[in-house]
């Protein structure tokens, strides 16, 4: 077993599998994880704010940027994580597999780190495709795994800190050819020295003091040994270039769904700018929300309730109030965004009409009876913002049913799920 | 026999490179593996990081059990285990075998060309990893026409053609450059 593990590590030895490379790719991946975690938390608290929380309403494209970044960094994690795993792969064959209690904990934490990272970016990506082939709820698991991963990242940095500091700067690259596993690094130096001489496998066997394993394993190892080894510097450069190009490709060919300059090369983004009713993509449809009948009913009214007083507005009455034009993006948690022109009544004007206290937050209730976002809250900073509208028109036309006809919310810097469609009732939350 | 063989490997290698002072920087545990050369400050920072990380991890576990129904948790564990298996037992060996195959097939080709072809295959595979699920998911009739609106199969085909053309072009350029003997030998040998 020990022999097999050593042979595996030996066969896997490669110029790119060294601690310097692990540090270089690792810090990029770590940065991507931190960006995902930070933007993810921001998105989470926008949707489920704690009582004391207030949010910035400017710049009005703030959420478009934070959530677009969340998805872009998440997609960049695919090449970066695979590269990192490629670099440290020989560490899997460390022998003995466990060298004590702490070593066991460390290896267990790395296993969990690897598995949870792969699951996290996979379910995140598939969520943007609205494809859910797993047996657990996405939002809750994605949120919990975020904490788990950031904890494991911090532990990992703590454990590897000497390696990280040693190989942080290029200056130490001279010793960067050391292999990943410090405990067995010495073996690889010998291995490299030996395999530097082509066709000296007998010599290698003599040095090891034994014959190679026989049978199929032996033949496989001999086959691997007789393969030409890649040149060091070229391999490292090629590896880094490949990781860079792959990251640029996956990001560049998908980010057009939120980042307009890349719209033309949006080949693989799950959304496309301008594709949808009135030029705006749709997330939840009227059919999914089962609101078509109620929304198209001519008896529809919007009820505004403040401090016990209630008033209902027909669509005609809303249209008769002063109208405001705003240019605001719809920005979805799934990472896409679409700039649009909205016309409607300022929420602030409606609140003032009902003499609401400017310090009050509001609850927005949709015609939709089920669904996690059929009732949402809006903090006072959005209620008082002059850009926050009860929108009646979109891009110069009457709001499409799929965009929330008869009336929907549109506010700066909020996720799409909080831009309540098919509004039915707006009520002040009395404190 | 095995033990003595191993001993000799360690012995000669230690003489060769003298990296023994770095033991403890690899997969070793934080407290036990630290040698005298590690400063106290480093040890404090490492303990603080590990401690803080454990707290965050514990909070994550709490959030998981708090938000997700108990009957769903095994599903999460199963996916994590499957992801490890998928990578370590399937994906990584395939990549290893492909690397071997490519280097053997390219015995007579310059190292630069092998690196370019290898890079092309890796870039194409990673983009496909992102793109193929769109093709699959589109078959399940997305909730509305604005989800996955593009022809992803066609786009992926175009991408591979462009990538192949770029790979061939770059390789040809590299070969020409080497033939011209510009003096720069790209195919350096192992530095040892």
UniProtKB/TrEMBL annotation, chain A:
GO cellular component labels: plasma membrane
Stored CDD domains: SO_family_Moco
Bilayer-spanning residue ranges: 21-45, 71-96, 108-129, 141-159
Keyword tags: Cell membrane, Membrane, Transmembrane, Transmembrane helix
UniProt-listed InterPro entries: Cyt_b561_bac/Ni-Hgenase, Di-haem_cyt_TM, Mopterin_OxRdtase_euk, OxRdtase_Mopterin-bd_dom, OxRdtase_Mopterin-bd_sf
Top-level lineage group: Bacteria
Predominant localisation class: membrane
Residue ranges of every copy of the Oxidoreductase molybdopterin-binding domain listed in the record: 297-429
One of the GO BP terms on file: respiratory electron transport chain
Domain (Cytochrome b561 bacterial/Ni-hydrogenase) ranges: 29-158
Identification of the protein by name: Molybdopterin-binding protein
């Amino acid at each position: 077993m020990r022999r097999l593990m050593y042979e595996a590590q030996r066969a896997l030895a490669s110029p790119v599998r060294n601690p310097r490379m692990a540090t270089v790719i690792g810090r990029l991946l770590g940065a991507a994880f931190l960006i995902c975690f930070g933007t993810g938390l921001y998105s989470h608290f926008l949707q489920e704010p704690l009582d004391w929380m207030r949010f910035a309403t400017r710049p009005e494209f703030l959420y478009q940027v934070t959530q677009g970044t969340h998805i872009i960094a998440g997609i960049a994690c695919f090449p970066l994580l695979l590269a990192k795993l490629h670099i440290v792969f020989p560490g899997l064959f460390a022998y003995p597999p466990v060298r004590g209690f702490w070593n066991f904990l460390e290896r267990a934490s790395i296993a969990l780190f690897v598995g949870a990272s792969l699951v996290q970016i996979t379910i995140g990506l598939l969520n943007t495709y609205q494809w859910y082939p797993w047996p657990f709820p996405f939002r809750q698991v994605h949120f919990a795994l975020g904490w788990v991963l950031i904890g494991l990242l911090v532990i990992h940095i703590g454990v590897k800190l000497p390696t990280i500091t040693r190989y942080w700067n290029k200056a130490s690259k001279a010793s960067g050819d050391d292999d990943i596993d410090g405990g067995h690094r010495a073996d690889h130096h010998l291995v490299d020295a030996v395999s530097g001489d082509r066709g000296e496998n007998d010599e290698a066997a003599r040095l090891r003091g034994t014959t190679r394993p026989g049978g199929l394993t032996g033949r496989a190892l001999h086959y691997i040994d007789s393969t030409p080894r890649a040149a060091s510097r070229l391999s490292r450069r090629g590896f880094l270039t490949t990781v860079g190009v792959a990251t640029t490709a996956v990001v560049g060919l998908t980010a057009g769904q939120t980042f307009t300059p890349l719209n033309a090369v949006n080949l693989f983004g799950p959304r496309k700018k301008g594709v949808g009713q009135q030029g705006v993509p749709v997330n939840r449809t009227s059919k999914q929300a089962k609101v078509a009948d109620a929304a198209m009913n001519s008896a529809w009214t919007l009820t505004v309730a403040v401090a016990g007083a209630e008033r209902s507005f027909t669509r005609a009455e809303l249209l008769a109030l002063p109208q405001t034009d705003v240019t605001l993006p719809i920005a979805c948690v799934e990472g896409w965004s679409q700039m649009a022109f909205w016309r409607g009544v300022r929420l602030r004007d409606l609140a003032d009409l009902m003499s609401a206290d400017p310090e009050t937050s509001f609850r927005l209730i949709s015609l939709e009876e089920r669904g996690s976002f059929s009732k949402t809250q809006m903090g006072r900073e959005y209620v008082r913002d002059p850009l926050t509208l009860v929108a009646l028109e979109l891009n110069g036309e009457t709001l499409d049913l799929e965009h929330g006809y008869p009336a929907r919310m549109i506010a700066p810097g909020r996720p799409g799920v909080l831009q309540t469609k098919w509004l039915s009732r707006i009520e002040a939350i009395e404190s | 026999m095995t033990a003595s063989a191993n001993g000799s490997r360690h012995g000669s290698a230690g003489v060769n490179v003298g990296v023994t002072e770095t033991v403890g920087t690899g997969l070793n545990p934080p407290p036990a593996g630290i040698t005298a050369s590690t400063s106290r400050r480093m040890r404090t920072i490492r303990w603080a990081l590990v401690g803080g990380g454990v707290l965050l991890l514990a909070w994550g576990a709490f959030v998981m059990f708090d938000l997700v129904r108990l009957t769903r948790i095994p599903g999460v564990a199963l996916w994590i285990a499957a992801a490890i298996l998928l990578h370590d037992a399937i994906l990584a060996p395939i990549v290893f075998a492909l690397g071997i195959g490519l280097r053997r097939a390219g015995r007579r080709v310059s190292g630069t060309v092998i690196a370019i072809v290898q890079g092309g295959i890796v870039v194409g595979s990673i983009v496909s990893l992102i793109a193929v699920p769109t093709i699959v998911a589109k078959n399940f009739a997305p909730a509305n026409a604005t989800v996955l609106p593009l022809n992803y199969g066609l786009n992926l085909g175009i991408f591979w053609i462009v990538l192949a053309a770029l790979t061939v072009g770059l390789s040809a350029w590299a070969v020409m450059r080497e033939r011209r003997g510009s003096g720069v030998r790209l195919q350096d040998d192992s530095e040892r």
